[in-house]
């Protein structure tokens, strides 16, 4: 009986493994086809200045509409795209879309638009991201200053010197660089020493209970104070409640982004959102140093 069970177990196990391999293959094919079939799209989430309510820019977030599975969130396919070596191509598509959106944007009706684009580790460490961005901004004839690159600490970890060179080249093109999910990586402070960045984005996990949990609250205050001291802009992400806003105002945070302000939305909805007067101004704010 034990032998049979053992054999059954073995058979089940290998069946599960081949299933997984099959699923992986299916996923890989689906992802590669998705690019050709234009199943990807970008949605945009506003970022506003806390003091004035003015729109400072938007973050572009990738969405995949799978023909059978419907909307697949980026957390489910971006790591996989990285694994199969598709992220550079996908990332270039995202950058192209963002540049296209900036180029086609009607400044006179909606005010100038800046778009922040998330990039993966491989884009910073392997491909020539700066050359890709340089080419695209020229091709679409847009001011590179309208573009911001969001990079995570973990993306910079793999090959720090290469990553630093890439990010410095981007900045010399006039592209802004933000350190995303700040505080969740291993050595945030080392990056602040070595990286010439413009903005820090405080990870949502710190903010969630910052107004009730004194430890989280102090961490958020500390990050904001540190950003001010280093003359960096600071964005709080995942702002969901008025309590979050009150806390962040008191802590002197520059900018906020989150469901309370707006959910990520298609470009056309963003225009309606702005036209409806949801943001209190149209000019991007000057580099803020201190907000009281
Ligand atoms: P992220 O860059 O930290 O983006 C913020 C995430 O928080 C987004 O999730 C956004 O929809 C979500 N979010 C915004 N406000 C709130 C809020 O108030 N509450 C909550 N609970 N969530 C909020 P999303 O779109 O699922 O993206 C997840 C992650 O996937 C992103 O985190 C980013 O790391 C990655 N990602 C998204 N688009 C791209 C892309 O084009 N390229 C690369 N490489 N990564 C991307
Ligand atoms: Mg981001
Ligand atoms: Mg983030
Ligand atoms: Mg995050």
**What is the typical, i.e. mean, pLDDT?**
87
By DSSP (H or I, 4+ residues per run), the number of helices equals: 13
Globally, the shape reads globular
Q: How would you sum up the major sheet?
A: 8 strands, mixed, barrel
User: Uncertain spans, ≥5 residues at pLDDT below 50?
Assistant: 1-13, 281-292
Strand portion: 15-25%
Domain EAL: 24-278
Protein name: EAL domain-containing protein
Question: Can you tell me about this structure?
Answer:
The chain is α/β, with parallel strands linked by helices. The chain has 13 helices and nine strands. An eight-stranded mixed β-barrel has the order 1-2-4-5-6-7-8-9, surrounded by four helices. Bound molecules: ligand C2E and magnesium ion (3 copies). Residues 24-278 form the EAL domain. It comes from Azospirillum doebereinerae.
Features:
292 residues; alpha/beta; eight-stranded mixed beta barrel; 13 helices; 9 strands; globular; disordered N terminus; disordered C terminus; binds ligand C2E; binds magnesium ion; EAL domain-containing protein
């Amino acid at each position: 009986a034990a032998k049979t069970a053992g054999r059954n177990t073995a058979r089940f196990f290998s069946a599960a493994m081949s299933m997984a391999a099959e699923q992986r293959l299916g996923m890989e094919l689906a992802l590669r086809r998705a690019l050709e079939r234009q199943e990807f799209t970008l949605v945009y989430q506003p970022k506003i200045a806390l003091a004035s309510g003015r729109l400072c820019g938007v973050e572009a977030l990738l969405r995949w509409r799978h023909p059978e599975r419907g909307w697949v969130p980026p957390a489910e396919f971006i790591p996989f795209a990285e694994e199969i070596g598709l992220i550079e191509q996908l990332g270039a598509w995202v950058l192209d879309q963002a540049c296209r959106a900036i180029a086609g944007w009607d400044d006179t009706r909606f005010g100038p638009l800046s778009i922040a684009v998330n990039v993966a580790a491989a884009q910073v460490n392997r491909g020539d991201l700066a050359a890709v961005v340089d080419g695209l901004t020229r091709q679409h004839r847009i001011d590179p200053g309208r573009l911001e690159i969001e990079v995570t600490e973990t993306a910079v970890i793999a090959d720090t010197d290469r990553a630093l060179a890439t990010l410095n080249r981007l900045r010399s093109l006039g592209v802004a660089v933000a350190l995303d999910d700040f505080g969740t990586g291993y050595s945030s402070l080392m990056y602040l020493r070595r990286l010439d960045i413009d903005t820090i984005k405080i990870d949502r996990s710190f903010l969630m209970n910052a107004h009730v949990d004194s430890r989280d609250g102090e961490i958020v205050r500390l990050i904001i104070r540190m950003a001010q001291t280093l003359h960096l802009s600071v964005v709080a992400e995942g702002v969901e409640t008025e309590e979050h806003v009150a806390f962040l105002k008191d802590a002197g945070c520059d900018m906020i982004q989150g469901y309370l302000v707006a959910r990520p939305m298609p470009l056309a909805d963003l225009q309606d959102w702005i036209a409806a007067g949801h943001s209190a101004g149209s000019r991007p704010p000057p580099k803020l140093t201190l907000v009281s």
